[in-house]
Each structure stands twice: as structure tokens, then as C-alpha cells.
Amino acid sequence: MNEPVSHKLAKFLKEKGFNGLCRSRYWVGYENEEHLQEDCINANWNNYDDSSTTYYSAPTISQVVMWIYKKYGVWINAQYMGNEIKFTWSIDVINEDNLNDTSWTSYSPDEEDKISFDSPEKAYEAAFEFYFTELNIS
Questions:
Q1: CB-based burial of residue 124 (10 Å sphere; 0-12 exposed, 13-18 middle, 19+ buried)?
Q2: Mean of pLDDT over the chain
Q3: What's the farthest any 2 CA atoms get from each other in the chain?
Q4: CB neighbour list of residue 99: distance below 8 Å, 6 or more residues apart
């Protein structure tokens, strides 16, 4: 969970307004080749582009989980599926309609679909994508 997210997710998070400090970044230069650079200074790389290079902050999964929780009141979790070495995900959205009656709405892949992933990282990335696209969160 302490490895940088994929380039695809880093680019998506920049579009969604991720602004956390990261020690890793992706950069895309003249020939549109993506590069991961780790152990950078701790910065919001999404705010730094120059004429020849585009940068994307590359947060860890745990940073993304906490950013979504703090910004949207949503908890995302990857779960081990038992006897198979597979993982799935769940999303819990807090409903704050009444301060005295806080409840959650939960989302997870349909049981019939048997959606599973080979690693918790892949499960988390699928959950992030589902949250921002299927739940229409801006």
C-alpha cells in the first residue's frame, strides 16, 4: 500500500483535484513516454508543469484512501476473499442528513459478477475508478 499508484490512476486523480504532497511523481515528456520518479521532494506535483513536461503526483494507495475519506466522507476498503488468493472492494458513503442519525450506504461488486483481483492494489484502484465514475462524484 506504500507503492505509488499507477500512472493511469495518478492522471485521473489530477483531473479530480488530488492536491496532496507526494514523494513520487510521473512525468511525460516530448515523446509521450511515461516515467516514474520516486524519492522526490515532498510536493504537490499536480501543480507543476513546464512547456515540455507534464507531471502527475503519484500518491500511495493509503494517501488516496485518506484523501477521499477527508474530502468526501467515504471509506474505501479492499478485502481478502478467503480460500482463494483474491481480493475485492467495498465503498461506504456516510449519510449526514441528520447529525443525530448518521448512517452509511455501502457499495461493492455484485455477488453474481464474482469480480475479484489478484492483489489488494488492483482492488483499490478498481474501487477508486468505480467511486469517481459510477457514483458520479466530481
A1: buried
A2: 84
A3: 55
A4: none
Question: What share of the chain has pLDDT > 70, as a percent?
Answer: 84
- Residue 17 per-residue DSSP state: T
Query: Residue 78 belongs to what H/E stretch?
Result: strand 74-80
Beta-sheet strand order (sheet of 103-107): 74-80, 87-95, 103-107
41 phi and psi, to 5 degrees?
A: -65, 150
Cβ neighbours of residue 46 under 8 Å, at least 6 residues apart?
Answer: 13, 14, 18, 19, 55, 56, 57
Residues 6 or more apart whose CB falls under 8 angstroms from that of 7 comprise 26, 34, 36, 56, 58
Question: Chain-centre distance of CA 50, in angstroms?
Answer: 25
**CA pair distance 14, 56, nearest whole angstrom:** 7
Q: Which residue has the higher pLDDT, 130 or 98?
A: 130
pTM for the full model?
Answer: 0.84
